[in-house]
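Course exercise 7: structure representation. Students receive a sequence record and must write out the corresponding structure in token form. The form below is the worked example handed out in class, using Iodothyronine deiodinase (119 residues). Read each field label carefully; the graders check that inputs and outputs are placed in the correct fields and that the protein name is recorded exactly as given.

STUDENT ID: A-19
EXERCISE PROTEIN: Iodothyronine deiodinase
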Amino acid sequence: LFKLDEFKQLVRDFGDVADFLVIYIAEAHATDGWAFANNVDINQHRSLQERLTAAKSLIKENPLCPVVVDEMNDITASRYGALPERLYVLQGGKVIYKGGKGPWGYSPEEVRKVLQKMT
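STUDENT ANSWER:
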């Protein structure tokens, strides 16, 4: 999760007015695929068990909110255009903020502005 510390600060600051959830999707920068130098060592997921195991590495970083895992058909990532990552704010079941695709469009600061307006 890009900018995890900024995300965790959002959870701390707005956890009383918003519910946060991380959906672990396909590994965008898998070691056996298109990887960055100094990236975590995670291969492309070939089974749900491998994806669950990879998600545990994120959980160890204590994101301060629940972490769920996308299905192997990547239905959530596909519907939300979330690969490699993306932030959303929903209210009443409707999307009120759709961030840009990460890593460059991933902006916890934009989410902060949206949540500040809701308080």
